[in-house]
Amino acid sequence: MIEVRPFSSLGGGNHGWLDAKHHFSFADYRDPKRVNWGALRVWNDDVIAPHTGFAPHPHNDMEIITYVRSGAITHRDSLAKRIIHRARIVATLFDVGRVGRLAQYRPHLFRDRNQQMPE
What we know:
The strands form two sheets. Strands 1-2-3-10-5-8 form a six-stranded antiparallel beta sheet, with no helix packed on it. By secondary structure, the protein is mostly beta strands. Strand 6 and strand 7 (82-86) form a beta hairpin.
């Protein structure tokens, strides 16, 4: 069943450099009715300020799909792999459980939708 959820009804917060909306329970947002959808555990709609991003951080047994609405985002992992994803292209799947740590940052304005699924 498809559930229509207005963008304004999503959880999340504005942290200055990051304006995040969460479709499921994530970080400080908790909604016991919205923990996951099948294997899909995280679906965030993020806006990241220019010249900022997520410092290297661990992930465990998940893949990340990134869709950039405008601008670009760069993913860099602990294996020295660096990929720049441009707008309107679905990013390559990352087997994040095997790369150790992942950093995401952006040199340009973008709106990013991240979906993370455990293997």
